[in-house]
């Protein structure tokens, strides 16, 4: 077991959060990173124990066109500022990983500057891919080269060059010795050379115990990247897409089927892949913006924290802020925030309370980090599964319908369960529990045993809905705090026009075409995300993506970046 097996990540895009200028003048350091120090205690109070922060190092613009891998971006401060920041994170029990942008450099990087100055005589002419001294580009360099994503601002490194591999491995060693970093998130890992990644893994294995390598991968068989020879984890874009569209479409089948596919590639076994799960980040719209019903914020995050994988929260989303992609920039996804504006969020903001509660619950239940996964009930609007470890069965129930729903689901061999979010206690009868799952909500059911430590309970007054829900058609079962009388949930009747289907009937009636359309939509979104990450996307480009409804073509399109 390593620290990352039990990690709950908080993700910061520092240039945005700190309010740095969009362009770097390479002047004297501006100590904006110090403004983020108060966020460290907020991260801990939010139930997170790890931080992914980046990009951090000197660059000319958004951070992914690196100028100097060994110098904190001047807009953020000095190397001492970063050293102190990581030390404070460690002091408060938070591990830290940096963004590693090793697929390409910026044009101001020393090797490219030498190439411009000395051309064929440059010792760095083989550091980059497909350098052609008979070509030219929009910068009038007098030569051309391979770039990343079609943008000559991003010059593609020749990762098969031993000198490049040695240099980047030295960068990793420097980050550990200078800043005491605990791991690296590899940008654009799905286009990195596999031998190059193996060299990075060999370095990671020697620089620090449990040093973690996580890669940005959009689609594909994640086990190609995650294994003993390459990376420890990759970004789980497949689950990301399923979590929001599965709620918007009232289609829990999409989520459950995605989990099954990940299981087939090893993603849901305790000894298999530990994927990096998220619902939003610096490249995609905020989850609160994406959801058609804001109330679905609750079941989405219950699933994020309880499905197999390593959960992550993107800064600001714990407050339920909006963030929509714009035609000309991603600035709205990467805003400057003042923590003092959210000083009472843990008491007053329902979204923040939910995130903090889920973090506390997950840290108290090893089964959510190490347990196997077993589906218990699946319908379009209701879903239940168990996480099982050492004979203990944690049961998770979620409901995306506007009415309460009563579930009867199998459980562990104990007499009683308690809802970690609701405080309800239910008796076990014939190996099952019958629980009322509130509209657009869910719960995490913990077995009550004499040997078990006291379960984490969020009292009813702290239970959450991100916005005021519509009045339910039926009066829901009242939540009862832990320690009071047991509650046996009563069925909530539905309108005859909306009968409760059996799982088998719903399975047979599943609209397979809708499921396939969902997969195509996810691939189209991945293509646009790649395009938008690299620069302006025209309406015509968007139309070309929307018109492409062919699975294999979209996959190849993604691989081309």
Please, could you describe this protein's structure?
- The protein is 32% helix and 18% strand.
- With 561 residues, the chain is α/β, with parallel strands linked by helices.
- The protein folds into 4 domains: 3-105 and 159-366, TIM Barrel, CATH 3.20.20.80; 106-158, Oligo-1,6-glucosidase, domain 2; 368-496, Immunoglobulin-like; 512-559, no CATH class.
- The strands form 5 sheets. It has an 8-stranded parallel β-sheet with strand order 11-10-9-5-2-1-13-12. Strands 14-15-16-21-18-19 form a 6-stranded antiparallel β-sheet. A 3-stranded antiparallel β-sheet has the order 6-8-7, with no helix packed on it.
Which key features would you list for this structure?
17 helices; TIM Barrel; six-stranded antiparallel sheet; Oligo-1,6-glucosidase, domain 2; eight-stranded parallel sheet; 21 strands; 4 domains; 32% helix; alpha/beta; Immunoglobulin-like; 561 residues
What layout of secondary structure does this protein have?
Layout: E1 9-12, H1 14-17, H2 37-45, E2 50-53, E3 57-59, E4 66-72, H3 79-91, E5 95-100, E6 104-105, H4 110-118, E7 147-148, E8 151-156, H5 162-179, E9 183-186, H6 194-207, E10 212-215, E11 233-234, H7 237-248, H8 252-264, E12 276-277, H9 287-290, H10 297-306, E13 310-314, H11 345-348, H12 350-364, H13 367-370, E14 372-378, E15 382-389, E16 392-399, E17 405-410, E18 416-419, E19 425-427, E20 432-437, E21 441-447, H14 503-509, H15 512-534, H16 539-547, H17 551-559
Parallel strand pairs: 1-2, 1-13, 2-5, 5-9, 9-10, 10-11, 12-13
Antiparallel strand pairs: 3-4, 6-8, 7-8, 14-15, 15-16, 16-21, 17-20, 18-19, 18-21
Helix pairs in contact: 5-6, 7-8, 10-12, 15-17
């Amino acid at each position: 077991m390593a620290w990352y097996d039990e990690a709950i990540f908080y993700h910061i895009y520092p240039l945005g959060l700190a309010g740095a200028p969009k362009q770097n003048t390479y002047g004297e350091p501006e100590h904006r990173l110090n403004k983020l120090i108060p966020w460290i205690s907020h991260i801990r109070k939010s139930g997170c124990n790890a931080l992914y922060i980046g990009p951090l190092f000197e660059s000319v613009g958004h951070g992914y066109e690196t100028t100097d891998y060994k110098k904190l971006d001047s807009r953020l401060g000095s190397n001492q500022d970063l050293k102190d920041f990581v030390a404070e994170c460690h002091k408060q029990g938070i591990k830290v990983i940096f963004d590693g942008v090793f697929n390409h450099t910026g044009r101001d990087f020393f090797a490219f500057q030498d190439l411009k100055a000395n051309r064929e005589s440059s010792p760095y002419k083989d550091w980059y891919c497909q350098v052609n001294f008979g070509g030219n580009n929009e910068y009038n360099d007098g030569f051309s080269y391979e770039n990343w994503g079609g943008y000559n601002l991003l010059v593609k490194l020749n990762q098969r060059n031993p000198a490049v591999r040695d240099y980047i491995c030295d960068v990793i060693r420097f980050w550990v010795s200078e800043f005491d970093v605990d791991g690296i998130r590899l940008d654009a890992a799905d286009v990195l050379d596999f031998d190059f990644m193996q060299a990075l893994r060999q370095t990671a294995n020697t620089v620090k115990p449990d040093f973690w390598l996580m890669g940005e991968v959009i689609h594909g068989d994640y086990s190609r990247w995650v294994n003993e020879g390459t990376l420890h984890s990759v970004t789980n874009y497949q689950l990301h897409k399923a979590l929001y569209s599965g709620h918007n479409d009232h289609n829990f089948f999409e989520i459950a089927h995605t989990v099954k596919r990940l299981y087939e590639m090893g993603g849901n076994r305790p000894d298999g892949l530990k994927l990096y799960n998220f619902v939003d980040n610096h490249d995609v719209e905020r989850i609160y913006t994406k959801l058609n019903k804001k109330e679905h914020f609750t079941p989405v995050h219950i699933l994020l924290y309880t499905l197999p994988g390593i959960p992550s929260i993107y800064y600001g989303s714990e407050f339920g802020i909006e963030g929509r992609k714009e035609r000309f920039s991603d600035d709205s996804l990467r805003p400057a925030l003042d923590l003092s504006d959210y000083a009472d969020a843990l008491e007053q903001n329902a979204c923040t309370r939910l995130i903090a509660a889920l973090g506390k619950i997950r840290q108290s239940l090893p089964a959510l980090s190490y347990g196997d996964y077993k589906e218990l009930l699946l319908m379009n609007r209701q879903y239940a599964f168990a996480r099982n470890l050492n004979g203990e069965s944690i049961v998770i129930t979620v409901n995306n319908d506007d009415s309460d729903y009563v579930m009867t689901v199998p459980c562990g061999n104990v007499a009683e369960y308690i809802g970690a979010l609701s405080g309800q206690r239910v008796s076990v009868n014939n190996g099952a529990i019958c629980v009322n799952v509130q509209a657009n909500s869910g719960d995490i059911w913990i077995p009550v045993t004499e040997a078990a430590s006291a379960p984490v309970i969020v009292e009813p007054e702290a239970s959450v809905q991100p916005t005021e829900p519509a009045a339910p058609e039926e009066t829901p079962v009242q939540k009862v705090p832990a320690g009071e009388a047991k509650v046996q949930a009563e069925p909530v009747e539905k309108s005859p026009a909306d009968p409760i289907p059996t799982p088998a009937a719903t399975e047979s009636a599943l609209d397979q075409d809708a499921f396939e359309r969902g997969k195509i939509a996810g691939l189209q979104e991945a293509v646009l995300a790649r395009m938008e990450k690299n620069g302006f996307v025209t309406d015509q480009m968007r139309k070309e993506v929307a018109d492409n409804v062919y699975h294999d073509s979209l996959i190849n399109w993604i691989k081309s970046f």
